[in-house]
Each structure stands twice: as C-alpha cells, then as structure tokens.
Amino acid sequence: MNNQLDLFGNAPESKKPAKRSRNAARNSDAGELLRRIKAIEGRFDRVEHVLRQLYELLTVKQAIKDWYTTKEVASILEKKEYTVREWCRLERVNATKARCGRGAEQSWLISHDELTRYQNEGLLPPPERY
C-alpha cells in the first residue's frame, strides 16, 4: 500500500475511481441527453398545438357570416358571452343593436370585419367620457 500524497495533499488516483469518473461521465451524458429529449418533446407539443389550431381553422367549424351574435363571438373567441356583451356596452368593440330583439331588450350584433379586427388588433381603447 502506497500512502504517498501529491503536492496538494491528495492521494494518487487508483483505477477504481477512474471507473467511477467514467460512470459519472456516462451519467452526465445521459442527463444531457434526457434534457435534450425533453426540450424536443416540448417543441413537438407546441407544433402539435399549432397544427391542431390550423386544422380547426381549415375545417371551418362555423360558416363565415356577415354578422354574429354575442353568443357566437364568445364561442369563436373562447370567452364568456357576458364578457362580449360588456365589450359591446363599453364600446371596446364596434357593435350595433339588432333591430328586432326579445321584448324591450335588443341584442348586440358584431360584424365579421370587426371580429377579424379584434382577432388581429385586440380591444379598442376605452372611449373618453366627459
């Protein structure tokens, strides 16, 4: 048994620690490989999500109309109908009241052009009140 120490007080390396360092290198390589695989899986998930959205757009679940009700706009935008009605009431989207409605209440109608504008640009700024 050789108990010599080097200049820094460390024992000389034997063959067994070298095997451990090779195993450690393999483990770190395996860890790096797993990280890369997870990153690729994340990218595939995003690509799959975009492809699913494109498929839904291309299969046209709903026919393009000139005017939409608040319920139809809510389903297209995946919002609550109440939210869309509030946008209309607060003039955050350009909407008109339907000429015929339920009793004294008239429902809001939103044009296809306004729906497209909202999807591209977002809500209008709140109007200035005096």
Question: What does this entry show, briefly?
Answer:
This protein is mainly α and 130 residues long. 55% of the residues lie in helices and 7% in strands.
Question: Features of this protein?
Answer:
130 residues, 3 strands, mainly alpha, 4 helices, Arc Repressor Mutant, subunit A, 55% helix, elongated
Give the rounded overall mean pLDDT: 83
How do the SSEs run, as a string of H and E?
HEHHEEH
Helical fraction: 40-55%
Shape: elongated
CATH topology of the largest domain, which one? Arc Repressor Mutant, subunit A
Rg over C-alpha atoms, rounded to the nearest angstrom: 32 Å
| Weakly predicted, low-confidence segments | none
Please tell me the total number of domains.
2
Care to count the β-strands?
3
CATH class annotation of the largest domain = Mainly Alpha
Numbering strands along the chain, what is their spatial order in the largest sheet?
1-3-2
Q: What does the largest sheet look like?
A: 3 strands, antiparallel
- Which structural class best describes the helix and strand composition? mainly alpha
3D structure, described in words:
- The protein has helices spanning 15-58, 70-77, 81-89, 112-121, and strands spanning 67-69, 96-97, 108-111.
- With 130 residues, it is mainly alpha-helical.
- Strands 1-3-2 form a 3-stranded antiparallel sheet.
- The mean pLDDT is 83.
